Amino acid sequence: MPGEPGDEDPERALAKAATFHAAAVEAVKGTANGEAGDGQQQSDQRRRVARLDSEALQVGGLDHVVEAIRRRVWLPLCAPQPLLDDLGIAPVIGLLLHGPPGCGKSLLARRLSALLSPRPPSFVSGPEIMDRFVGSSERHKRCRSLPPTSASQSRTFCALLHCRTNAQANIRSLFKYPPRPLGGTPYPDDALHVIVLDEFDAIAGSRSDRGGGDAGERVRDSVVNQLLACMDGVQELDARTLLIGLTNRRDLIDRALLRPGRFEVHIEVSHPDARGRADILRIHCQRMFAAGRLDIPATAEAEFTAFLQGLAERTEGFSGAELAGMARAAAAYALDSLSTLALTDPCAPLLAAARRRAALGRYWDVDAARVTADDFERGLQDVMPTTTLGGSGGGSSSSSAEDTPLSKARAGAGPAAVQ
Ligand SMILES: Nc1ncnc2c1ncn2[C@@H]1O[C@H](COP(=O)(O)OP(=O)(O)OP(=O)(O)O)[C@@H](O)[C@H]1O
């Protein structure tokens, strides 16, 4: 039967799929054009199905991840059904993104789901689900420490049964489509439903490791069993469903969930390399650069690039979250120096309330506000201690503004050297 994993050698099926790629995209474009109501919607749909790359997703340093997603997840999802039938494949129903914290898994899942389907995705936090059910079952578990009267035993049994039933119902309800948002953009009934399972290991921990001992463990086991059952029944649903599991610990996840046909595609989202870090920094500094708030003229694209490369060289081992944090810290230092100006202005307390608002602009000197090399240097120092990897030592405390990538870039000296 088409769509059953293992019907055809996956490599061969993929090679065939690649051959049909152009035709598939064209066919989908055609469908989008045919179905769209007005011109705007047409062009939106066309863009949605026709493009999936790092730029469209607004993520940096994840080109290889995006390419794998495009090939294994996106192409089969947007290919025409007759073509999939000929190839004997069905789109995957489970994608697992795993890797260290802060490297962009949630960001990627959010952006990808927005690009894949007009239907709002369902976001689920693993610990939240488990706390609700396992927490209560563990509270009831304490009944076990009571003297083994028939009353306490039956209370424990009922509580466990209740928690298991609730947890299973809760997992089943995940697969139901969320109600259409009132006043939102209409979408077809069979639009893809994306379910993002954050901290997936909390829901999907390996059953064999736990031995199924106490009440909480039995609830956890029943959640995994329910998840397996729901995934196996996903093909019967009216709309296609894609589960995206996010985890820092793939090794903790039950192996039955990780097999082909369930979470079939595993992609590691790891720390970015120097080029990736420059891309991520560009995303997070682009706005201040374009607004002329960086201490580099907004037109000096080459200087900006050199500045980003210099910073990227000095931030080995940083995650995307840490790079974004560094840009925020630099901006906060810039604000801080401006607000100091405001506090030290001797006229400030004397101003009448009506004039304060107008005066604020003067005190903050909004027009002159720039994020300087020193601000980035201090931002780098701030974020450094949270970084556990790398330690190429960017930003030794003695480095002066003259040594910074920004000042080197401004002097036309190119990227700063790795320290
Ligand atoms: N590749 C990236 N490109 C651009 N920004 C990034 C990237 N990676 C991380 N960030 C920034 O860091 C923030 C946090 O990243 P995100 O929550 O996606 O990490 P995560 O891998 O899901 O972490 P965790 O495993 O701790 O949940 C993002 O909202 C974004 O601002």
Automatic annotation (TrEMBL):
Region annotation Disordered: where it falls in the sequence: 382-419
Record-annotated AAA+ ATPase domain positions: 91-273
UniProt remark on cofactor binding: Binds 1 Mg(2+) ion per subunit.
Subcellular location: Cytoplasm
Gene3D superfamilies: 1.10.8.60, P-loop containing nucleotide triphosphate hydrolases
GO biological process: one example: Golgi to plasma membrane protein transport
Matching InterPro entries: AAA+_ATPase (IPR003593), AAA_lid_3 (IPR041569), ATPase_AAA_core (IPR003959), P-loop_NTPase (IPR027417), Vesicle-fus_ATPase (IPR039812)
Cellular component, GO, one term: Golgi stack
Recorded family membership: Belongs to the AAA ATPase family.
UniProt protein name: Vesicle-fusing ATPase
